[in-house]
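Homework help board

Subject: predicted structure for assignment chain

Our instructor gave us this sequence and asked us to write out the predicted structure in token form, then describe one feature. I got the tokens but I'm not sure how to describe them. Can anyone check?
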Amino acid sequence: MTREHWIRGPVGLDADRRVTVAGCRTVLVVVPHLAAGTRLVSDVIPLLRNDHRVQVVFSVSETGRLWHGTEEFVRRQGGLVVPWHQAAENEFDLVLAAGHNDLDQVRGRVLLLPHGASSLASRKFGRHAGPGSIPLPGLSREALVRRGRLLVSAVALTHEDEVDALRESCPEALDTAVVVGDVCLDRMVASAHRRADYRRALGVADDQRLVTISSTWSRESAFGTWFDLCGRLLEELPRRDHRVAAILHPHIWAVHGAWQVRAWLDDHVAAGLLLIPPDEGWRATTIASDLVLGDHGSTTQYAAAIGTPVLLAAFPHDNVREGSLADVVARTTPRVDPGRPLLPQFGEVAPTAVAEALSSRPGEASRALRTTMYRLLDLPEPPCPARTSHLPLPVPLRHQDAA
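My token output:
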């Protein structure tokens, strides 16, 4: 059996003999999959910039090694990547996680936040659930407690309603709850004024309508149930008046492979489809869109929350929890009829008001998250520059540009 290597970094035995900047608090960013990684890399760890007292390192957890593309994504960030077996043997001052995977293996104060819209699951049953399974409420005790030990020091919630859910599902974690709002939504709202910039970056003319397909993963998703939707839109929508974009959940890319996704859609990309990369660009594209054809996934919920008109291309009514964000969107959103021409159905679609259901702390998430992190680090919070309150979203790249 080959022994896995350790790296010489700023943590572990003799670290004080290697570092140039000494005395730093160490922060471990746990990446179990791309969806969690993008939330942490894009929205959370930038709030620790410009502080010489803090050293951030990354590690792809055991779960992350099972998802295609996770390791590559983490290494592209340019941060120090600590092998998981080494990370699990060291204690950190703060552990950042956007998913409950593998938290029982880390040592340190854990700040847990969602990697999508809301900490509560929209699905009624888990993906591995069988007949007779109980509903999956999210924030479950199974996720937060292991062998009688509470795994988290702080749970960042997006809405006050989640406090009640946590009280019911895992009362021993109630004291760790911090309602911060939704940093992703805040950034989208704060970046709405850049809509024209995003449209230009995507190659969308001022007189063109951008129609975007938003698909979560699984066979119940828009991409899973209506594979040829991209082709239908490209065929039926006049090119001079319309552009079509596709935002596919990172797990679609991870499970099937980037090559396969591009191969499936190669003819459509050649015909003008804007295929958005899985790691960044989906939010800017959503802001740039005139209409989103979505499903029960988080991207559709964010689109509705910022006021982008939404139609449902797919929706698993039998597996969506009543009262969830997906349910709130579906109750006021029309469903596309595949048997009818698409363009006449796009008419006047009214925006769906769900922002208040998504976040009860609008505009506060960046500052609240930063305060929470420094509290857990036992460090005085430095003066907060204005740019950290609402980090601007970058312009989107089409996947063919990023490749």
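Reply (TA_rk): Your tokens look well-formed. For the description, you could write something like this. The radius of gyration is 21 Å. That's the kind of observation they're looking for.
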